[in-house]
Design a protein that fits this description.
about 325 residues; Deoxyribonuclease I, Chain A
């Protein structure tokens, strides 16, 4: 059986030409839109994935234009981006899948009951900053795979009306709010993970833009690596970083050197693929194992190199065309027939 390939990529404001996204961010020109959708189509071909979890899609039509520019002209792909119609003004999460897979897709906007938290000077945070996308798909071996695509709150300071953005004390307070929001969302995702894995042997993959490093508290809340060897129920609900359990690391792509963004020029890994123990070879409940992890980050260097000039010789601003995140792709070999 061919490996099951699951990828994640933050597309960086994939929106239709002429449509405004964030305040202060100019809409794409027709030429920029063509360049961006063509580049992402080439990335899809390179990934050759069965499932691609995408973040920061403003319009489903834009993702359709990406898919239609792949080598198959879109004939081998299905896709969905809930809530991303032509009038949408917020970044959404989507899924691309290769035929003949037929996932069932739902969007989750509200934090689960009991997961809302008060945010200082801002009020209760009761909804995900970007609604999650959950997909379930039968694997054909009696198991049903659940994919959870997430994009947690960014580390950007969360100011409230009336605050002076040049005041360092106000900035510290704004950073605290951002952390509280991201932490609440991580704990809410954890609730969904526990609900999906407790007393269940159904495999789960949680992937996307966590906006935090592997060892960050928020990332560890989602994975919950606090289990003790004798605490069996806790282990049942634990998630594993694919780079920690991969059988065959790609050359030069080990955990210590892997990165998915360049933040202020410094490499960081904030895009993760976490798997349940059903995809960990050492587990007695394994139905497969992570065979390889690929991180496609070359464009980040080119994007950063072009940033001082702002454009290539043809006048295209590569910082707008290339995503500011790397793509991560995990290959999972399934056991049995």
């Amino acid at each position: 059986m061919n490996p099951l390939r699951i990828a994640t990529i933050n597309c960086l404001n994939l929106a239709l030409a002429g449509r405004r996204t964030y305040e202060g961010c100019a809409p794409y020109t027709p030429d920029e839109y063509i360049a961006k959708t063509q580049w992402l189509a080439t990335l899809l071909d390179r990934l050759a994935a069965d499932f691609v979890l995408v973040q920061e899609v403003f319009h489903e039509q834009a993702l359709s234009d990406v898919v239609r520019q792949t080598t198959s002209r879109g004939r081998t792909f299905g896709f969905a981006v809930p809530l991303a119609d032509e009038n949408n003004t917020k970044p959404r999460l989507g899924l691309i899948w290769r035929q003949p897979w037929q996932p069932r897709i739902e969007s989750i906007a509200d934090l689960p009951p009991g997961c809302a938290v008060p945010v200082p000077e801002r009020g209760e945070h009761a909804q995900f900053s970007r609604p999650l996308l959950r997909a379930t798909v039968p694997l054909g071996n009696g198991a049903t795979l659940t994919l959870l695509n997430l994009h947690l709150k960014s580390r950007r300071p969360e100011f409230v009306d009336g605050e002076d953005r040049d005041d360092p004390n106000a900035e510290a307070r704004a950073q605290l709010r951002s952390l509280i929001i991201r932490g609440a969302e991580a704990a809410a995702v954890r609730r969904l993970v526990v609900d999906a894995t407790r007393r269940s042997r159904a495999p789960l993959v949680v992937a996307g833009d966590f906006n935090d490093a592997p060892a960050a508290v928020t990332t560890q809340i989602v994975a919950d690596t606090s289990w003790k060897p004798e605490d069996r129920p806790q282990r049942d609900c634990m998630l594993f970083d694919a780079l920690d359990v991969v059988r065959r690391p790609a050359p030069g792509r080990g955990r210590d050197v892997a990165y998915t963004i360049l933040h202020g020029g410094e490499p960081e890994r904030i895009d993760h693929v976490l798997v349940s123990e059903e995809f960990v070879a050492q587990s007695k409940h394994a139905i497969g194992h992570v065979a390889a992890v690929e991180i496609l980050a070359d464009h980040l260097v080119e994007r950063r190199r072009a940033a001082p000039e702002g454009a290539d010789p043809n006048g295209t601003d590569l910082s707008r065309i290339f995503p500011d995140h790397a793509a991560v792709c995990v290959s999972i070999v399934l056991d049995g027939p």
